[in-house]
Write a structure and sequence with these properties.
With 134 residues, this protein is α+β, with helices and mostly antiparallel strands. The protein contains five helices and two strands; from the N terminus they run H-H-E-E-H-H-H. The chain has helices spanning 6-43, 50-53, 78-83, 112-120, 124-132, and strands spanning 55-63, 66-73. It has a two-stranded antiparallel sheet. The chain starts with 5 loop residues before the first helix and ends with a helix.
């Protein structure tokens, strides 16, 4: 007994694969990186705003059928600040000059980029659902 509808299944499969290959995955990766970057900007320590303003837009690369992306900071000292323990958090920079503010700011976090992506992890399934329609 022949199977009915197999051609329709094959056609729908080809359409779905083409849709994914034509930018859906790139858009999805970009959206996840954008949300992580926005959260990281809120957690980034600010003194002169150089570090937070050095965050670059998500970079997407498609190679051999794989989609990868990255986001980060171009300031030379970004990795050092990211890896700092944050032990000076909330302490004044110069007790004799209150206009200098505190080390870090109230929302700043050590390992801000990592923590930002940990924060948005619960939202990733919804992003995938929205983009892939599953």
């Amino acid at each position: 007994m022949p199977v009915k509808g197999i051609e329709r299944v094959r056609r729908n499969y080809r359409v779905a694969v083409a849709r994914i290959a034509e930018g859906t995955t790139e858009r999805t990766v970009y959206e996840i990186l954008s949300q992580g970057g926005a959260m990281a900007a809120q957690m980034t320590p600010i003194d002169t705003s150089n570090l937070v303003n050095s965050q670059y837009a998500p970079q997407i690369e498609v190679s051999q059928g794989k989609v990868t992306g990255n986001i980060g900071y171009t300031a030379e000292y970004a990795a050092t600040v990211h890896d700092a323990a944050g032990t000076l958090r909330g302490r004044p920079r110069d007790p004799n000059d209150p206009s200098r503010g505190d080390f870090w700011d109230p929302n700043a976090e050590p390992r801000f980029l990592e923590k930002a992506f940990d924060e948005i992890k619960p939202a990733i399934p919804a992003i995938l659902k929205r983009n892939y329609g599953v």
